[in-house]
Amino acid sequence: MGEAVAAVICERLDDHGELRTYRRPGPPEHIAFEILREADGRAWTLRVPWEARSPFRDLLDEARERLADDDGRDFDEQGCAELAKADLGAGEQLVAVLLEQGDERAFAVWRRELARHGWNWTLDVVVVPAGLAAAACGLMLGGLDRLDDGRQAVTKARYSGPRMPVSSAAIPSQPPSAITRSISRR
After folding, report:
1. What is the pLDDT of residues 135-166, one digit of tens each?
2. What is the mean pLDDT of the chain?
3. Contacts for 154 with CB less than 8 Å, ≥ 6 apart
4. Cα separation of 172 and 5, whole Å?
C-alpha cells in the first residue's frame, strides 16, 4: 500500500502563527486545517470531509460577511456567538463562532455532533484571535481552491494577501495527535 502525496499549503497568520492546509486520503478522505501558534506551540486541527467542500466554502463566506457586519453580537451565557453553520449530515455540523471571555475575543470554526442529549463540541477546531478571523477565512478558502485545482499554482484563489511557499510532502492518514492540542467548552 503506497503513501499518498499531497500539497501542504503553508500560510502566515501575521505574528500569530501559521495555517497549514492539506488533503488526507483517509479513510475517510478529508481536508485538514492546522493552526500552529508560535508564541507557545499550541496547535488546533479541523478536519473537513472532502465531499463537504462546498458547504464549508459557504460557511466561510457567510462568516466573513457576518464579521464585516458588526451590529453587535448576541453572545450566549457561555460567551459564544454563532456566525454560520453547515450541515455535514448524519448529525454533524461545522460552526463558525466568535468566543468572548472578558475583553478577549477569538474566532473558531468548530465541528459538533448530535448526541442523545443535544449537540456536543468535538476536538476538531481551529482558533485565531478575532482580529485575524477574516484573514483566516480567506486563507482557508484559498487553500480549498488550491486543493480543488490539484495544482500548486494559485489560479482562482479568493485571498490575495501574502503567501508562504507551497511544499509537497507525504501526508500521514492520521493527525499528529501528540502535538495537537485543542480547547473545549466547559
Report:
1. 999 999 999 998 887 644 333 334 444 443 33
2. 79
3. 142, 145, 146, 163
4. 9
Q: Left (φ > 0), alpha (ψ -120 to 50) or beta: where does 184 sit? A: beta
CA–CA separation, 107 and 118 (whole Å): 23
The rounded distance, in Å, linking the Cα atoms of 24 and 54 is 17
Domains located in the chain, CATH noted: 5-170 (3.30.2450.30)
How is residue 130 written as a grid cell?
478575532
| Residue 129 CA: distances (Å) to CA of 29, 106, 120 | 29, 4, 23
Query: In a 3-state reduction of DSSP, which class is residue 16?
Result: coil
Gap between the Cα atoms of 183 and 125, Å rounded: 8
pLDDT tens, position by position, 89-143 = 889 999 999 999 999 999 999 999 999 999 999 999 999 999 999 999 999 999 9
